[in-house]
Amino acid sequence: MASTLVDFGAVHWRKSSYSNGSGGLCLEVADDVPGLVPVRDSKLTSGPTLVFPATAWAPFIEALAEHQPAR
């Protein structure tokens, strides 16, 4: 399997809409990495990045949405 190195410092990160405003429980997601969805802790941006296949991300988000209380 071929692998590609991605400079996650060069991607555009956005804070999850489910992150709270008090500085806790915050995730950032990068949308501009083709075929992949990088996720990191917004409080520890130099820490580890989890990388998911884009094909797995959509069903994951849909499953979460089914179990979220209404906003």
Oligomeric state of the chains in view: single chain
User: What percentage of residues falls in helices of 4 or more residues?
Assistant: 10-25%
DSSP strand content: 15-25%
Mean pLDDT: 81
State the separation between the terminal residues, measured CA to CA.
42 Å
Helical stretch count? Answer: 1
Could you give a short account of the major beta sheet?
Answer: 4 strands, antiparallel
Sketch the topology as an H/E string, one letter per element: EEEEH
Q: Label the overall shape.
A: flat
Find the count of extended strands (DSSP E, 2+ residues).
Answer: 4
- Neighbour order of strands in the largest sheet: 1-2-3-4
Mind explaining what this structure looks like?
The chain is flat and about 40 Å long. The mean pLDDT is 81. The protein is of the alpha+beta class and 71 residues long. It is 18% helix and 24% strand. The chain is built from 1 helix and 4 strands; from the N terminus they run ββββα.
Write the layout of secondary structure elements.
Layout: E1 13-15, E2 27-30, E3 36-41, E4 50-53, H1 54-66
Antiparallel strand pairs: 1-2, 2-3, 3-4
What structural keywords apply?
71 residues, alpha+beta, four-stranded antiparallel sheet
Short account of what is shown:
Helices cover 18% and strands 24% of the residues. The protein has a four-stranded antiparallel β-sheet.
